Structures are given as C-alpha cells and as structure tokens.
Amino acid sequence: MPEPSTYFRKGFGLKSQVEGDLASDYSGRIVDYLRENDYTLVDGDVTVRLAREFGFCYGVERAVEYAYQTRRKFPDRKLFLVGEIIHNPHVNGRLREMGVFILERGPHGFDFGRLGPADVVILPAFGVTIDDFTALRDIGCVLVDTTCGSVLNVWKRVESYARDGFTALIHGKHYHEETRATASQVGRHANGHYLIVRNIDEARLVSAFIEGRTTGAAILSQFAPHAVSPGFDPALHLQRIGVANQTTMLATESLAIADEVGAAIARARGAEGRARDFRSFDTICSATQERQDAVRELLEEPLDVMVVIGGFNSSNTISLASLCAQRVTTYHIESPDAIEPVADTIRYRPAGVQHREAVATGWLPKGAVRIGMTAGASTPNSKIGEVVERILAGRA
Prior knowledge:
CATH superfamily of the largest domain: 4-hydroxy-3-methylbut-2-enyl diphosphate reductase, catalytic domain
Strand order of the largest sheet: 1-7-6-4-5
Shape: globular
Helix content: 40-55%
C-alpha cells in the first residue's frame, strides 16, 4: 500500500464544509414530498408512485462526497478521476465543472503519462484494477480511494477463490469497470484464473463443458480473450469453480447462474464432487437488492407505465428496467431532458437493447394515468424531481 500521506480512503474530515454544495447539487424537494406522502404524488388525473428504495445508495453518496472533499482539500492541485466516478452524466459533468479531469480508458487501458507526484487522483466507486493501482502508486501521486465497500467484499471473495485454487466465475459484463477490477484480484496469486459470464445462456455453455457436452475450443471461442484470464485452459481451470458477481447485476439471474453451474458439477461428479469443487456466495450489494425488491413490490400495483431513471451505462439501472419491462410498458431514460412536454415525446433506451435509443410520441395514456417510477443507485434526487416536473408539465 502507498504511504499514509499519499493514500486516503476515509475522506478528509470536511463533510460539514461540503454538505451545502451536495444538497444544492443533488437534493430534491419533490422527492422529499413523495417520501412524506407515502411515495405518492397526485396532480389532476396523474398519479406518480415512487418505489420505496431508489436513487443514491450509500456507496455512491460516499464516493461523491469524497470527491467534493478532495476538491476542497486540494484547491490548487490538479485533480484527476480514473474514469467516471459513477454512471451518471449529471454527476460526472458537475465534477468536470469543479475542475476534475476525467481520464478515459482507451483500447490499451488508461494513459497515466501526464500524471506526476504533485497530482491528486480519485479512484471511482467501481474501483480500479491491480495493474492500474500499482501504476498510480509508482507515480507517487496522492490517491483518494472511493471504492464501494460492497465491491471490496467481492474482491475478498474472488481473491480467496484464487488463493484456494478455485477459478472465479464472475457474473458480470467483461467491459464494465467494476468487473475488470474484480477479475484482476485473481492476480494476487500466481495460479489465479477467472471466467466472466454475461447471462444464464453463457453459464449453460460452461455447464455443458463440465458435463462433457461441448469442447474447450467452444468455451474459448465464446469467452476468449476478453472474458477469461490470460492462459486460461478450460480443461484445467474449470475443475474447481467459485461463483461471484458484479454487485449491480440482476440478483435472480446471479442466483440462477450459481445454481446452474453447481448442479452441472453435481451431475458430472456427484454430491461429493460438488461439495469439493464448487463454492458460491451471493455478492449482490444490499442497495441493489433493496431497489430490485422495491420495484417488485411497486409492480404489484396497477400501473400504466414505468419510468426508470439512470445512466444508460449504469448496470443497476439496466437491471431495474429489465425487471419492470417484464410487467409493464417501461421507459429507461437517462435524464429529465429525455421528456419533451410540448411535443409529448420521451427519448428512452428500450429494455434489453444496447447502444440504441428510441422516441415515443403520446407515450402517456389519455385520461387518468398511474405512473410508476424508480431510479438507479447513481441518480440524484434532484433529477428524479425534474422528471416528475416534466411529466406534469406535459399534462398541464
């Protein structure tokens, strides 16, 4: 670890000095009203129902607060952020306005060539890979680590798998910052390996190999090189498996993946083989689980549409939109600007579709309408309130 004078993980004791700025930038009076009125707002023939768990989680609040404290602590230093601090365009834009330069990951990783010992570097809530951390430590710059505690818990689990000779099978997106950082933890042990599965279908392919129904070549064709560790050999590295997950994935699918792989080992090697060669722990963070549970509860009510607010690259928001789309017409929007009251349009990302937006006209039914609403863990209350305002403006 770096010297204590150059590595900070618990802020700078400046919380009281930045509370006003944080409240001004991210709090919302409409959300306060909703909380005080059973998460319900009625205006004419429009009823808005907000899920009981939504928006900023503790890890996000902590990361953003530490970034604000860092700016206050080092007013004259150059501040850099290793990628986005969270997946919300408003929050990252606000940090840019404060003079924080966000380093973007290129095809060969982050370029730290412009950094020097006098610079201050903020590590995002997702964490960074071991290689990136080591490179920054070697430069000698001040590091402010906002890595979420839930992510750190997954790292410990994955590291323990590698220590004990288990390959980490990670349910996540191989390109996501958190999953890259998590996968890198196997590098703490010389023989550590990982394989990243995106969904239950990919997990079934792993099961097919375990049971001898497909080949190692098929595994490598599907997962190499981006979703497996260097030197990955299915014949060697799918003997003993420990399951973990990106903390913001859909919890039910993570559990299904663990069940699928564990059952395959049991079918291939018996109950004793499963007990010997398989480990699994639910590492979905509590905030992700709470928001998914709250959405399920809200979906039990009669709703005409569901609006899900959060970054299009926010994994936990995507999971919420996916849950909602199974039950009701759902619009995943990134910001209040997606709603145009005069034109009666909404610009959204259809659930299950990547890299494509759609526009719906006349998206709210005429007459009395019940709108369900939730927001990903990186969405500020202020933006939730602005979405409500734009919806009501369209019905005025």
